[in-house]
Amino acid sequence: MGPNGADVRLYSLGSEKTVVDGSGRFILALDQGTGGSAALVFDDRGQPVASADAEIRQHYPQPGWVEHDPDEIYTTTLRVAREALDAAMFDTSGEA
Length: 96
Prior knowledge:
By secondary structure, the chain is an alpha+beta fold. It is about 20% helix and about 35% strand.
């Protein structure tokens, strides 16, 4: 069982996850770029219904190099995924 007792299943579609709940199907697309994390939610017709993004810090240890904190990538990816799903009216809190 998923959030609020909904029957939720995750199907891997490359970098996308399909979330199935009692009201229909949604696609959560996650994009990780050099400067940030982004999440987009699409409905069952492929129309965008919500999005969220967050910047990540870039560290330059020497000229021509860039580094990122993997923990920051992980936490911003989770945060934007939750924000986008919440904005799409899908409760990700896990509370009834």
